[in-house]
Each structure stands twice: as C-alpha cells, then as structure tokens.
Amino acid sequence: LLYKPVDRVTRSTLVLHDLLKHTPATHPDHPLLQDALRISQNFLSSINEEITPRRQSMTVKKGEVSPPAL
Fold it and tell me: Which sequence spans correspond to the domains of the chain?
C-alpha cells in the first residue's frame, strides 16, 4: 500500500525533470519548477535514507539463519 504513493512521486519527479529541460530559463515558471523538483528529490532521498538501514538489517547472508520473528 505504501509503494504506490512513492511511485507516483517518483514519476512526478521524472516529469518535472523533463519539463524543466524544455522550459527556457527566462520563463516565469522556471524557478518554480526548479523548487518543485528540488522538493520532490529531497523527499525521495529522505525516504531512501530511511529504508536503506531497514533493508540491510533484513538481509540474511547465504548460509546464515535469520532470527525468528517476534
């Protein structure tokens, strides 16, 4: 359930990036698009930073036995 909203933000970030490439620097919306892109990238980075330690703690190396779930 949590993946879908994050996926939507990821897709929106890509759209903002493409839109910014095709928007002239002199256009009045250019700074606003830059801000929106920066905000969405920071949001995705913060989510990634929170998820990475959890993934590492859940990873079991080959030959090891995972602890029983509580």
Answer: 3-51
